[in-house]
TrEMBL record:
The keyword Electron transport applies. Gene3D superfamilies: Transmembrane di-heme cytochromes, Chain C (1.20.950.20). Residues 329-353 are annotated as: Disordered. This is Cytochrome b561 bacterial/Ni-hydrogenase domain-containing protein. One of its GO terms (molecular function) is formate dehydrogenase (quinone) activity. Pfam families: Ni_hydr_CYTB.
């Protein structure tokens, strides 16, 4: 691993740790403030007496009647909220767990039956620059935030069924408070970086005619013969890109609606934003498991490209042959002392997008 890459990983890890510690510190302060009896009493809703109930029943609203919902004309019992609860608990949560569990089972089964995709030919020792430092930094930043958001979101949705019985109400409540603060604070950062990375990689992920052949061959798993044609991004990578550009942006927009409830959205808008956010996030998490598997354990040579920026010439030929034909003249022989160090790649390499 090159020295610049080592320092990049170090500073990214340090920054992430500071964000986590800051979020946990804030959540602890909030929890202590909520536990202060005097503060709780000062902000408590006045007692509901018989007069208030008569006002509610008659539809009147007086000085003693409180409704914290924005622009609300609901009765005391909110049928819309119950509909949202039923959709979330009976449909979204169970099927989200089924989707993620099914994807994990498919990955394990695929690995046991097919195994890792090794290179068909020996490595050449010649390297091609595939990802610049900026591109790798964007990728790992978005990927790290995605994983943290996915884990914290799963904890918010399913954590009460796992951790509450194990640790009890007090620990579980503190855990959920910290999880919620972490999720809410890093969500907007993820949204901004996602828009940047989608804009940067748009041209590389535009559909081409040869993408259909890639799908018909299952990315090279179906049939015999040479690997299907692929440019800088293959058809599978383009599908992941457009999922992020559609479902991912839907998750980001709905997350902003939930994160900033002071811009005019009413209770119904918040409830539907929550449903959209959960469906999109659970679906992306399931697909992301496949993306992570293919880019790490599933395919030889893929992870080192995003880790170092360079890929072996053999890997480029087999997986992205159309891109290789355009970039092969820029290959660097790692065994030649006269060649520049791989750790000092140019910031704007002359390569096809």
């Amino acid at each position: 691993m090159s020295t610049p890459h080592t320092w990049l990983v170090f500073w990214r890890t340090l920054a992430f740790a500071l964000v986590v510690l800051g979020s946990l510190s804030l959540s602890t302060t909030t929890a202590l403030a909520q536990a202060d009896p005097e503060r709780e009493i000062s902000t408590a809703v006045p007692a509901v007496d018989a007069d208030v109930w008569r006002q509610v029943k008659s539809g009147e609203t007086g000085a003693n009647y409180r409704d914290s919902r924005f622009d609300s004309n609901y009765n005391l019992i909110n049928a819309s909220g119950e509909t949202w609860r039923q959709i979330r608990n009976r449909w979204v949560s169970p099927f989200g767990m089924i989707a993620i569990g099914a994807m994990l089972a498919m990955i394990v089964l695929f690995y046991l039956i097919v195994g890792r995709k090794h290179l068909d030919e020996p490595r050449s020792g010649r390297k091609l620059l595939r990802w610049t430092i900026l591109e790798r930094s964007l990728h790992w930043s978005v990927a790290t935030l995605f994983i943290v958001l996915a884990l914290s979101g799963l904890n918010l949705l399913y954590g009460k069924f796992v951790f509450r019985p194990l640790f009890g109400d007090a620990i579980w409540a503190s855990m959920m408070s910290g999880t919620k603060v972490l999720h809410n604070y890093i969500g907007p950062v993820f949204g901004i970086l996602l828009v940047i990375i989608l804009a940067k990689f748009l041209v590389r992920n535009l559909p081409k005619k040869h993408d259909w052949a890639w799908f018909k061959q299952g990315g090279g798993l179906i049939g015999k013969g040479r690997h299907p044609d692929a440019d800088f991004a293959n058809a599978g990578e383009k599908v992941w890109y457009w999922l992020l550009a559609t479902a991912g942006l839907a998750v980001v927009v709905s997350g902003f609606v939930l994160d900033f409830p002071n811009y005019g959205q009413d209770r119904d808008a918040m409830q539907w934003a929550n449903i959209i956010h959960a469906i999109g996030a659970l679906g992306l998490t399931a697909v992301a498991l496949g993306h992570i598997y293919i880019g790490t354990l599933g395919t030889e040579g893929s992870l080192e490209g995003m880790a170092t920026g360079y890929v072996d010439e053999t890997w480029a030929k087999e997986h992205h042959n159309l891109w290789y034909e355009k970039a092969k003249d820029q290959a660097v022989d790692v065994n030649d002392p006269g060649q520049p160090s791989l750790g000092n790649e140019p910031t704007s390499p002359q390569r096809s997008s």
